[in-house]
Each structure stands twice: as C-alpha cells, then as structure tokens.
Amino acid sequence: MGKVLIIDDEPDITTVLQAALEMEGHQVQTANSGMYGLVLLEEGFQPDVVLLDLNMPGMGGTVFLEEADSRGYGRFPVIWLTGAVSGSSDMICDGRYQRVIAKPFDLIALLETVDQMLETATSQSLP
Question: What global pTM score does this model have?
C-alpha cells in the first residue's frame, strides 16, 4: 500500500478520506493548509500521492507545489480536489502526473483513482 498526504482545509473531507484510505491499508497524513503540508514533508513524510485542495486560505495548492519543488521534496503524483471545476480530467504539468476531481466527489471512484496512481507510480519506479 502507499503513503498518502491529504491537504484540504475542510475537516470533514480530510476525516472521511483518511478513514477510507486507512481502511484500504494506506499510511495517511493530513494537513489543513499548504503550509502544514510543507511541515509534514520537512519532517520526513514522503508521500507516494498527494490529494490537494486547489483553493485554500493562506497557501493554496499551486503555491504548495511550487514550494515543495523549490525545497527539493521530490515530485509526487497529485490528485487535485476542487469545487472550481466540474467532472474530472487527467493532465501532465511540469513533469508531474495530475488528476483533477471535482467536489463533491464519489468516494469509491476517488479511492480507485488513488490506487491507480499508486500502481502507476510503483510500476514507473521499477528498473
């Protein structure tokens, strides 16, 4: 199973996602802001995938990624969680695989997306 970092300022979302992902066997850390997400990375948590809210007070998702990159915390796949779009889509941006999922989201579909991204990341890291 994988290491998942959830960064979202809505406690109900982080609580539900954390419980569901841990039931699936994943190691999960949560942060209620981009700044606290950076603290977790600084403390050594190395996520295999990040579930990231695009719009948060203080430090939003895009600034979090810029800071994580500039501090050398590695490049991890990102699942954007946002109410700013409808539907979902895949993209590659700055060499990082990203998926955009609109809130409210289907929890089962989101869990399947996490599993797919972890599987892809694992297969790409094999020699």
Answer: 0.88
pLDDT at 96: 59
- DSSP code per residue over 57-107: SSS-HHHHHHHHHHTT-----EEEEESSSSSEEEEEETTEEEEEEESS--H
Amino acid found at 66:
E
Instruction: Note down the domain range covering 87.
Output: 3-125
Angle between helices 107-125 and 11-23 in degrees, nearest 10: 60
Total residue length of the chain: 127
- Report which residue type is found at 46: Q
CATH of the domain at 54: 3.40.50.2300
CA 124, distance to chain mean position in Å, is 18
Q: Which residues pair with 7 in a beta bridge?
A: 31, 52
